[in-house]
Specification:
The complex is a heterodimer of chains A (about 100) and B (about 650). Chain A is mainly alpha-helical and about 100 residues long. Chain A has one domain (about 5-95): Helix Hairpins, CATH 1.10.287. Chain A contains 3 helices and no strands. In chain B, helix 1 (about 10-25) runs antiparallel to helix 2, helix 2 runs parallel beside helix 4 (about 120-140) and helix 10 runs antiparallel to helix 15 (about 340-365). The chains are: A mainly alpha (about 100), B mainly alpha (about 650).
């Protein structure tokens, strides 16, 4: 099997782990890290497919994803910081004000 | 540029008065309101006088220019339908203008005294002026559409003024009754207008009449002209309180007395007669409609007079008398004697307005008492009122020399002499004349003679102020002398009133001249003496029952208990209408329209849709748990579903 195939499989495994962490973890920081993990898994598959098909667009996309992820991380961390300050907790189960 | 070319000024003056008083009157002093109301009507009357002078000039030098029609602006233009705001002036209009502005002016003056201590002074005069405006539009309008505007407008003002004391339930109810009953008549009127437009393509009065004059007389069956005439007559019967739509007029007496005098005696209720006379050409081309008008008028005259015999409220006696006299006018129109009808309209305006105003003066003197059983012996304490009322009573009873005599005699004679006449019509008319004399003198004797039946310690009988007495005296003079222009007709000379009106009815007379006349002229004097004798009998019966032997009246009522109670209950017509129309409509409204259609149908549909939306929302709301992990799960599940879908669909 080629190196690229391993990379795609790894990417899928990482994405799956990220998705599981996203759904099942309770700590917001962990959830946030899971999201980052999924983004980077996607980056890995982008790079792998770029190499398989010998096209540059995949790699260009990766840079976009990294930039957006950085921006999202900044905003996300700021929100988490405020939540932690106001509610003295990082447990997502307790942050459920978004209902009636 | 005289008033003749600017006739709009006549209705515009009362309209301005109504607007000023209606919009600003609340802040005005009573004197200012009076000045505006009386000023505008005085100017309108002066304008009418000027107009008459110009009209006389015109009819002398250029009679072919009559009727004078001026179109001021197009009002409705839609396709080939066009109605201009156009006013027409001919002899009939002149008569009506004098009645409306002249009698209206006197009644305005009277109202200053009568309404001085009532609330809503400015409101009263504003409505009264507005009424004058609409009535003038009605008589001046050169098209049936404009006439209809005035027609509805006077109905509105009548409603407003009947319900003037709107805190009193009976007054508010009477206003509603008048309005609703008039709707029935107006419905017929409107259908007549639609039919007229369909037939002639226009509503312009002169054009319609000119085209109708060229059509053949519909001697057999119901043709278009008959249908139009009959539908118009339904409207006239509503407005002029004829059988079977007269029921609103007696109740209309809830309004202030000057209103009863102006609207429900002198002017508005005669609008129907005016309209029929105005459409005379239509009617003579529809003999069946003529017959209906004559019979309805004659029966109404008799029927209302019988009810008037036993009424005890002074104003109600006069109300039934008005219905009865309007019946005479329709009888005249129905037998083709249109100018006699208009003549009686005019004299009736004088003496009936006077009767109402004098009755108002009596009520004023008695401190609000209207029941004649609680009056009596007033002739000494309010002498001026008594004398005026006596003059009017003699006029309405047809005492020779008084105005009512000439007009009523003319109608009686025409009802048998005219080609449309019949002995039965004459007989009923004479019986009515006898009843009229009876109930009018009954009123006089009960009110002014005999022993006082009121509590002399509580009621301070006092004569009315001068503003009320002067109009009474002017009207008394008119009631006595207002008919003399027809007096030469008694000696087979010129009837100046008829001569004046002749050009208006020339088309109608052309048709009736071709028919054989009824009774021979040699009978005129004998029939006249029969009528006078009838009135004298009425007078003596009233004298006997109410003055000579006051207890005899009650004895007679006891002996004739059944007919008496039928009369007291006004033939149970109100009860009949209640049972046949009002209650079924209320039942349908309550049980079908309200509870069925509105509550169950419309509300049910609206509320049903709302509750479906709410229930759906209630269920869908559960999805929004507010828990971040639930949302995350949905997100992942959605993403997984999309991937599976793509895999399943294949590349």
């Amino acid at each position: 099997m080629q190196l690229e195939a391993y990379a795609v499989i790894l990417s899928a495994v990482l994405f799956g782990l990220g998705a599981l962490g996203f759904v099942f973890k309770r700590n917001i920081i962990t959830i946030f890290m899971s999201i980052e993990l999924m983004l980077n898994a996607v980056n890995l598959s982008f790079v792998a497919f770029s190499r398989i098909r010998a096209l540059l667009e995949g790699q260009v996309f990766v840079f976009f994803v990294i930039v957006v992820a950085a921006a999202e991380a900044a905003v996300g961390m700021a929100i988490i910081l405020q939540v932690a300050r106001n509610r003295h907790s990082l447990n997502i189960e307790r942050i459920d004000l978004l209902k009636l | 540029m005289g008033v003749l070319d600017n006739a709009w000024i006549i209705p515009a003056l009362p309209l301005a008065g109504a607007a000023i008083n209606g919009l600003l009157g609340r802040r005005f002093a009573q004197k200012t309101v009076t000045a505006v109301a009386i000023g505008s009507t005085t100017l309108a009357f002066l304008a009418t006088l000027t107009l008459f002078a110009e009209f006389v000039n015109l009819s002398r030098f250029a009679p072919d220019k009559i009727p004078v029609i001026h179109s001021y602006f197009p009002w409705i233009v839609a396709g080939n339908f066009r109605v201009d705001f156009a006013l027409q002036i001919d002899q009939l209009t002149i008569i009506m203008l004098f009645v409306v502005t002249g009698v209206g002016w006197l009644i305005h003056i009277y109202s200053i005294g009568y309404m001085a201590h009532e609330g809503g002074y400015y409101r009263f005069f504003s409505f009264l002026n507005l009424f004058m405006f609409f009535m003038l539009i009605l008589v001046l309008g050169a098209s049936y559409a404009l006439l209809f505007v005035g027609w509805e407008g006077v109905g509105l003002c009548s409603y407003l003024l009947i319900g003037f004391f709107f805190l009193k339930k009976s007054a508010a109810d009477a206003g509603k009754k008048a309005f609703v009953v008039n709707r029935v008549g107006d419905f017929g009127f409107l259908i007549g207008l639609f039919l007229m437009f369909r037939t002639f393509g226009t509503l312009d009065i002169q054009t319609v009449l000119a085209r109708a004059a060229e059509m053949p007389v519909e001697t057999a069956g119901i043709g278009t002209l008959t249908a139009i005439s009959l539908f118009l007559f339904i409207g006239a019967a509503g407005k002029s309180a004829q059988l079977p739509l007269y029921v609103w007029l007696p109740d209309a007496m809830e309004g202030p007395t000057p209103v009863s005098a102006l609207i429900h005696a002198a002017t508005m209720v005669t609008a129907g007669v005016y309209m029929v006379a105005r459409s005379s050409t239509l009617y003579v081309h529809a003999p069946l409609a003529m017959k209906v008008v004559a019979i309805v008028g004659c029966l109404t005259a008799f029927f209302a007079a019988t009810i008037g015999l036993v009424q005890t409220d002074i104003k109600r006696v006069l109300a039934y008398s008005t219905v009865s006299q309007l019946g005479y006018m329709f009888l005249a129109c129905g037998v083709g004697a249109f100018s006699a009808g208009i003549f009686h309209l005019m004299t009736h305006a004088f003496f009936k307005a006077l009767l109402f105003l004098a009755a108002g003066s009596v009520i004023h003197a008695m401190g609000g008492e209207q029941d004649m059983r609680n009056m009596g012996g007033l002739h000494g304490s309010i002498r001026a009122t008594f004398l005026c009322m006596l003059a009017a009573t003699l006029a309405i009873a047809g005492a020779p020399g008084f105005s009512g005599f000439f007009s009523k005699d003319e109608i009686l004679w025409q009802s048998v002499h005219s080609p449309y006449g019949h002995w039965a019509l004459w007989l009923f008319a004479v019986l009515t004349a006898m009843l009229t004399a009876f109930y009018m003198f009954r009123l006089i004797f009960l009110t002014f003679f005999g022993a006082p039946r009121y509590d002399e310690h509580h009621v301070h009988v006092h004569e009315s102020p001068r503003t009320m007495l002067i109009p009474l005296m002017v009207l008394a003079a008119l009631s006595i002398g207002g008919g003399w222009m027809a007096a030469p007709a008694l000696f087979h000379r010129t009837n100046y009133f008829e001569k004046f009106l002749k050009p208006v009815f020339v088309n109608a007379e052309e048709v009736s001249a071709k028919l054989a006349p009824g009774a021979s002229p040699s009978l005129e004097y004998p029939l006249m003496f029969v009528a006078i004798a009838g009135a004298v009998i009425g007078f003596f019966v009233a004298w006997w029952l109410y003055l000579r032997k006051p207890e005899a009246a009650d004895e007679l009522a006891g002996k004739l208990a059944t007919p008496h109670s039928v009369l007291v209950h006004k033939y149970y017509v109100d009860e009949l209408y209640d049972a046949a129309i009002v209650h079924p409509i209320q039942w349908i409204s309550t049980n079908v329209l309200w509870k069925g259609v509105d509550a169950a149908g419309i509300d049910g549909a609206v509320n049903g849709i709302a509750s479906i939306a709410r229930d759906l929302g209630q269920d869908a709301r559960q999805v929004q748990s507010g828990n971040g992990r639930t949302y995350a799960s949905w997100l992942v599940a959605g993403a997984a579903a999309v991937i599976i879908l793509f895999l399943w669909l294949g590349p």
